[in-house]
Amino acid sequence: MNFTESEENYIKAIFHLQLDSHIVSTSALAERLQSRPASITDMMKKLSAKKLLHYKPYHGFNLTTEGRKVALSVIRRHRLWEFFLSDKLGFGWDEIHTVAEQLEHVSSKKLIDKLDEYLDFPKFDPHGDPIPDKRGRIKTSDNLSLNHLPLHQPALVSRVSQQSAQMLELMQHKKIFIGSIIEIKKYFEFDRSMQIKLKGNRTETISEQLAKNIFVTYEK
Asked: Per the confidence metrics, is the pTM higher than 0.85?
């Protein structure tokens, strides 16, 4: 079954919101998609009719097994295109998300499987997010938000959760990348900002907001 670009965007957004809450509310989805609640309700009825989600008016909704498969297919395309744009075409990691948002709706399974093979089956995209395989299996990683990292504990930057061009531009300016070794030297109680140490003993001060979107794993 083929889906419209709008339907795929809704399904993908619901998938991501379900990671935090099993039942997704109309208001949460409207905020994420910057859409009116009435438009959300209309789309929920359409997706429910296609058996892609369980929808109960005034209670919320979540994806069916089939809806989850569609979401993972869209996410697979998006993250493979991000890897291709970064690794093969030299796009900056603050540019690739916007371009991949357009390319993810090219739904040829043969093309995406060939792309996966051409890229040698990458497991993670340039932002550290796992890439689902062609069967919809997705690797989970044990990481934690930087603002939960104990003081003086070196860790490896493994994922960035908020991938707006503005945030990635800020990370690039501070030279914080996937694979960077990072250590918190001091918290500032006034605004919960922190001083961090990076490669070459270089220090930077970053905000709590930025730290919440950087995920790390303990260095081994």
From this structure: no
CATH number of the domain enclosing 27: 1.10.10.10
Per the domain annotation, does 68 fall within a domain? Answer: no
CA distance 171 to 128: 14
Over residues 47-88, the pLDDT tens digits come to 999 999 998 877 889 999 999 999 999 999 999 999 999 999
The range of the structural domain enclosing residue 26 comes to 5-63
Give the Å distances, CA to CA, from 82 to 30, 90, 208.
26, 11, 27
DSSP 31-75: HHHT--HHHHHHHHHHHHHTTSEEEETTTEEEE-HHHHHHHHHHH
CB atoms < 10 A from the CB of 12, how many? 20
- The answer to whether position 207 is within a domain reads yes
Look at the chain and count its residues: 220
